[in-house]
């Protein structure tokens, strides 16, 4: 492809990864975001091996390893703290060829920002696009306009540009649970420092995983009706009530978290949608396929999008539109499967049908660790970098 100019709307994980990949391919790139200050939504993220492989491919492997937590084991525990399943993750690393890394979102975003060799223009809210057969123009609320050959809409779960691409509004769907998340100093009375521990029971979860800086990324999940509200001064009392009678490490975590640095989110997803491209505009990341965070694949899929789109642009001389069609066909199939699998898993974990959740608890206790690793490997190896 000739020297394209690409306009990216959104400077999250997907937008920045795409920007880095496209710049490395020799294309001109401009990135815009509506916010005054880039602050990631959520405290941490588990990057499974397929996402890490994308970063390796972009030359960021060593930097990723420096900010990622060492996670050698995954333990499922009952709410009282009895072990349901203890999974050694090292055979998984051997099978898929890369260690997974839990990481603080601010560390990941900072690494990506530093790796992107250009300026991210903040306080630019894209409100419309116009295109003809030769170009596409982004129009911003502040009056600014920019024209390029391709526009990537990486503007998140509540994407404005998704409506333009689809020709109709698609609202995010509520996943029927609330998630609290944050970071705490790592401590053996919470969990082993090389383990991801997940306490399950009563259709809820309490979890900790290691990230760099001797910290744990933690989250709590509770199924609640849509529209419940709270504020940081109430988080500790709220969690104490929801997790009454749970094991001591869970109680320790509730007492130790900083409520004013804890996020409380109603979990939503988007998709599957029937298209990702309209002319010269391509959806990427959560704008196209936000997933419930129950597979740890949301960020990974956005990273895969950026790499795959770049690869199709680089490897055809037919036309840019042809490259976008191939991107759409490839990523629609991959991401639709992940969105559906993650939603099904969210429903199973959080008691949409209580008898199914009870069966899952029983399955956890009986399942061979090799089978758990196999299921994770299957999702990872379905990606573009095997």
From TrEMBL:
<dbReference type="InterPro" id="IPR047712">
    <property type="entry name" value="HpxO"/>
</dbReference>
<comment type="similarity">
    <text>Belongs to the FAD-dependent urate hydroxylase family.</text>
</comment>
<keyword id="KW-0520">NAD</keyword>
<comment type="pathway">
    <text>Purine metabolism; urate degradation.</text>
</comment>
<dbReference type="InterPro" id="IPR050493">
    <property type="entry name" value="FAD-dep_Monooxygenase_BioMet"/>
</dbReference>
<dbReference type="Pfam" id="PF01494">
    <property type="entry name" value="FAD_binding_3"/>
</dbReference>
<feature type="domain" description="FAD-binding">
    <location>
        <begin position="4"/>
        <end position="341"/>
    </location>
</feature>
<dbReference type="GO" id="GO:0019628">
    <property type="term" value="P:urate catabolic process"/>
</dbReference>
<keyword id="KW-0560">Oxidoreductase</keyword>
<dbReference type="GO" id="GO:0006144">
    <property type="term" value="P:purine nucleobase metabolic process"/>
</dbReference>
<dbReference type="GO" id="GO:0102099">
    <property type="term" value="F:FAD-dependent urate hydroxylase activity"/>
</dbReference>
<dbReference type="GO" id="GO:0004846">
    <property type="term" value="F:urate oxidase activity"/>
</dbReference>
<keyword id="KW-0659">Purine metabolism</keyword>
<keyword id="KW-0503">Monooxygenase</keyword>
<protein>
    <recommendedName>
        <fullName>FAD-dependent urate hydroxylase</fullName>
        <ecNumber>1.14.13.113</ecNumber>
    </recommendedName>
</protein>
<keyword id="KW-0285">Flavoprotein</keyword>
<dbReference type="InterPro" id="IPR002938">
    <property type="entry name" value="FAD-bd"/>
</dbReference>
<dbReference type="GO" id="GO:0071949">
    <property type="term" value="F:FAD binding"/>
</dbReference>
<dbReference type="InterPro" id="IPR036188">
    <property type="entry name" value="FAD/NAD-bd_sf"/>
</dbReference>
<keyword id="KW-0274">FAD</keyword>
């Amino acid at each position: 492809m000739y020297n394209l100019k690409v306009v990216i709307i959104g400077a999250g994980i997907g937008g920045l990864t795409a920007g880095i990949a496209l710049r490395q391919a020799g294309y001109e790139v401009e990135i815009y975001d509506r916010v005054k200050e880039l602050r990631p939504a959520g405290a941490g993220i588990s990057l499974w091996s397929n996402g890490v492989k994308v970063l390796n491919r972009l030359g960021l492997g060593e930097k990723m390893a420096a900010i990622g937590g060492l996670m050698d084991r995954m333990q499922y525990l009952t709410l009282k703290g009895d072990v349901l399943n203890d999974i050694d993750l090292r055979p998984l690393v051997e099978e898929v060829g890369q260690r997974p890394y839990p990481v603080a979102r601010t560390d990941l975003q900072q690494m990506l920002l530093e790796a992107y060799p250009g300026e991210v223009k903040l306080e630019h809210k894209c409100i419309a696009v116009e295109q003809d057969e030769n170009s596409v123009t982004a129009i911003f609320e502040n009056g600014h306009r920019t024209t390029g050959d391709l526009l990537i809409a990486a503007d998140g779960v509540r994407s404005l540009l998704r409506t333009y691409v689809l020709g109709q509004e698609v609202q995010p769907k509520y996943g029927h649970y609330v998630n609290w998340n944050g970071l705490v100093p790592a401590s053996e009375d919470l969990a082993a420092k090389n383990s991801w521990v997940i306490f399950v029971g009563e259709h809820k979860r309490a979890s900790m995983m290691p990230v760099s800086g001797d910290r744990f990324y933690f989250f709590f999940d509770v199924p609640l009706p849509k529209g419940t509200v709270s504020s940081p001064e109430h988080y500790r009392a709220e969690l104490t009530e929801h997790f009454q009678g749970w094991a001591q490490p869970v109680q320790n975590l509730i007492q130790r978290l900083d409520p004013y640095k804890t996020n409380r989110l109603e979990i939503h997803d988007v998709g599957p949608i029937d298209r990702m491209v309209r002319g010269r505009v391509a959806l990427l990341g959560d704008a196209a396929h936000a997933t419930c965070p129950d597979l740890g694949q949301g960020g990974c899929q956005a990273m895969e999008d950026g790499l795959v789109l770049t690869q199709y642009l680089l490897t055809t001389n037919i036309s840019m539109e042809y490259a976008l069609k191939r991107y759409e066909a490839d990523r629609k199939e991959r991401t639709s499967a992940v969105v559906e699998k993650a939603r099904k898993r969210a429903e199973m974990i959080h008691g949409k049908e209580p008898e199914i959740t009870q069966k899952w608890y029983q399955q956890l206790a009986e399942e061979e660790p090799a089978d758990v690793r196999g299921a994770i490997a299957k999702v990872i190896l379905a990606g573009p970098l095997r």
